[in-house]
Design a protein that fits this description.
By secondary structure, this protein is an alpha/beta fold. It has one domain (about 5-160). The chain is about 30% helix and about 25% strand. It is built from five helices and eight strands, in the order ββββββαβαααβα. The protein has helices spanning about 80-100, 105-110, 115-125, 125-130, 145-160; strands spanning about 5-10, 25-30, 40-45, 55-60, 70-75, 75-80, 100-105, 135-140. It has an eight-stranded mixed beta sheet, with helices on both faces. A hairpin with a 2-residue loop joins β5 and β6 (about 75-80). The longest helix is centred in the middle third of the chain and has 17 residues, at about 80-100.
Length: about 160
């Protein structure tokens, strides 16, 4: 049975976000609940000088004019694009298979998009955010139009490069 959560929008979105000091970022811990309808997670604040271990996600936001999908962040619904949701679903699936929490920085969720001052400040740190991540995950979207073949070619090229060919 679906659970009702309050929808975060406008100033209500601010209820999800604790203020950040300079040099701080938020990371999202994706909760390992495979059978839930919604992606659920908690935001944690960490210092860029000595951050909590996290991965960073780079992806195409997708069509912002389409209605978003909801994820549950700290008990409140937050609207994200379909492409962000697809990436989160894959990250949660991988985390569940490894029985290991996924802690990730995703700009659309970890930055309060309704707070322009915060958004500008965080964007100025994006290079450092990506550099300090354990891994940079690039999400191109779900498999489509033989995209798996393109990924296989890229893997082959990386293998050749590793062998010095």
């Amino acid at each position: 049975m679906p659970v009702a959560f309050p929808l975060a929008s406008g100033t209500e979105t601010d209820d999800i976000y604790q203020p950040l000091e300079d040099g701080q970022i938020r990371v999202l811990e994706i909760l390992l609940r495979k059978d839930e309808e919604f992606i659920t997670g908690n935001l944690k604040i960490t210092n860029l000088d000595s951050p909590t271990a996290y991965n960073a996600l780079s992806y195409v936001w997708g069509d912002l004019s389409k209605p978003g999908s909801n994820v549950i962040i700290d008990g409140k619904q937050l609207s994200v694009t379909e492409n962000c949701l697809a990436a989160l679903q894959e990250l949660r699936r991988e985390a569940f298979l490894k029985s290991q929490a996924q802690v990730i920085w995703i700009d659309a969720i970890c930055i309060n998009q309704n707070n322009i001052a915060e958004r500008n400040q965080q964007v100025s740190h994006m290079g450092e955010i990506y550099m300090k991540a354990q891994k940079l995950i690039i999400w191109l979207g779900p498999q489509a139009d033989n995209s798996d073949e393109a990924v296989e070619i890229l893997r082959d090229l990386l293998e050749l490069e590793d062998r010095g060919v």
